Amino acid sequence: MLDFVDKKKVKKLKAETLQQKQKIKKGKMLATDDTERQESLKQQRLEKAEKDRALNLERQKLAEHKAIQGQIRQMIEQNRIRKEDGDIAYHFTDSKKVKQLYISQSMHDDLSRGRLAIVKLEQQYEIVPEPVAVKINERDASYVLVCNNRVESVDDDPYADFKIPDDLMW
């Protein structure tokens, strides 16, 4: 009977060691699963952070654009020159369409010489001084429709007294 008890003990010990080995194997498998899970979570966090950064950058750009539009609106409203109802039509283009404003002779001269400019604000055309139009153009060029190069008249022209004959042939 002694042999029989020993066989039972051996079987029991083998079973216990087998169970211990399986537990160790499971622990290692759990450990590898856990590290893989942690790596995937880390990757997801990095992707989310990158996505959040891109979204914040887009929001900042939108806020900057709105701020610039507000600045432009304020500049136009503060510096617009009241249009004098005149009898002279000034023609200009707005998105491939020819438009016209009726203005006075002095405003027409100033627009032609580049002292004044035409800007568009909410489907309305406003006349502003040239320095304001340059500042608006720096922020957003789509608002400025007409801004001619400034031409100053030459008062001390040495040849102003000489007339050019009409029949002069070169």
Automatic annotation (TrEMBL):
* Ranges of biased composition (kind: Basic and acidic residues): 34-45
Residue ranges of the region described as Disordered: 23-45
A Pfam family that the UniProt record links to this protein: DUF2058
List the source organism: Marinomonas rhodophyticola
User: What's the protein name?
Assistant: DUF2058 domain-containing protein
**InterPro entries (alphabetical):** DUF2058
Domain of life, per lineage: Bacteria
